[in-house]
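Lecture 7, part 2: worked example. A protein chain together with NAP.
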Amino acid sequence: MKIAIAGVTGLVGQKLLEILSERGFPCDQLIPIASPRSEGKQLEWRGKNHTIVGAAQGLSQKPDLAFFAAGGDFSKEWAPRFAETGAYVIDKSSAWRMVKGIPLVIPEINSHAMTDQTRIIASPNCSTSQLVLALKPLQDHFGLERVVVSTYQSMSGSGVKAMEQYDQELIDPASANKCYSYQILDNCIPQCDVFLDNGYTKEEMKLIEESRKILGLQDLAITATAVRVPVKVGHSESVSITLSEDFTLVDIRQCLADMPGIKLVDDHSKLQYPMPLHAAGDDLTHVGRIRRDESLPRSLHLWVVSDNLRKGAATNAVQIAESLIHQGLLKAVYA
Ligand SMILES: NC(=O)c1ccc[n+]([C@@H]2O[C@H](COP(=O)([O-])OP(=O)(O)OC[C@H]3O[C@@H](n4cnc5c(N)ncnc54)[C@H](OP(=O)(O)O)[C@@H]3O)[C@@H](O)[C@H]2O)c1
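Predicted complex, written out as structure tokens:
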């Protein structure tokens, strides 16, 4: 098994290395790929030194599997070229997610969307992944009528440069080197990614469109507000849901607890609720603050928190690769 990781020096690339090791994923040869800035640098993984190469050199080594975490422009250009050689490309960028015929996969929900004809597989946006995991069991048991989500997204969701901005602002809040349009220290910025013509940000539209695609509900009434907060790791979401059928909270808790990938953290009498502090480092998506919305029939509120670098990015990508192996689409031998 030859595995390429494009964007290996970035936050997601580094987390991919960590999770591949953690899960004992089979790998005979690692092909670490980054930008020309990093080419030639050494990287240590599983006790061996590896030399970082550019995309063309990585492609020439014909990987069986390629994880892409180097941004959308890179994926648009290189994913088809890697796929043409027969490699499965698992892409973390937004480049291919909404393209017809490209599976957008959360393995707990729709790994069946992958076939041997689909060499490029998209992994959802971090804020989408945790949202659909919580929505899926409610969809299956009660039907979804409307979803309103507000996010509180951590800085690591914006990559290395955002973390550098925060670290510099801790020393000097007026420091000039900005990843965001404004200071993030002591602030909440109601803008994740760029604004679109309809007044939503690109992040908000990703949440809306990707959720519809993964859940197979093209007409789902869903709206989003995405906010960046000065938290290092872990996205939080306040989710208001109207279901098609009425429910009891006991049934809601049960179906969420039964959903793979979800951990219920929901006992307000003991002040137990999901928080980034506790969800960071966990592969499970934490769900709590479950309560009936007393202002609307058939409606409830959830608070959903997940590690954006794990289930929101690297863990989901590795789980996709594991699904390819389980489905016999990718040949691998575990040690
Ligand atoms: N962070 C998250 O929580 C998260 C979640 C889901 C999806 N994603 C997506 O995952 C991707 C990576 O995100 P990140 O947060 O890891 O970003 P990041 O920390 O900024 O890292 C970007 C990586 O891409 C590499 N790169 C940039 N231009 C390249 C080029 N022309 N050729 C080869 N490599 C290039 C960089 O290499 P150098 O070090 O050499 O510059 C670096 O390794 C993005 O598409 C992002 O939207 C991120």
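The chain has a mean pLDDT of 97. Residues 6-13, 33-35, 37-38, 55, 69-72, 74, 92-93, 125-126, 156-157, 159-160, 308-309, 312-313 surround NAP (CB under 6 Å). Keep this in mind for problem set question 3.
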